[in-house]
Amino acid sequence: MADRDKKGYNLTKMEKIKELMSMKNEDVEFSGALADKDDVEAIRRSEAADERQIKKMDNGWTS
């Protein structure tokens, strides 16, 4: 079992950055022409979450 798999293990800043960047590389197909109201809301929420993560990275991983 890797250290990161143990309960209570805190990721280092570099590990957190790698994890965040790997999450941004998800292969998802999206068509604006086929989007409904829920899809647009999901995109808006996703962009807001990305902004929070970037802000958190800039300010440090204190929380």
Beta-strand percentage?
A: under 5%
Helix/strand order = HH
Annotation field: number of helices: 2
Radius of gyration: 16 Å
What class do helices, strands and sheet pairing give?
Answer: mainly alpha
Main beta sheet: strand number and arrangement? none
> Which stretches of 5+ consecutive residues score pLDDT under 50?
none
Report helical residue fraction.
40-55%
Model description:
By secondary structure, this protein is mostly helical. Helices cover 54% and strands 0% of the residues. It contains two helices and no strands. It is elongated and about 40 Å long. The protein starts with 12 loop residues before the first helix and ends with a helix.
Q: What secondary-structure arrangement, pairings included, does this model have?
A:
Blueprint: H1 13-23, H2 37-59
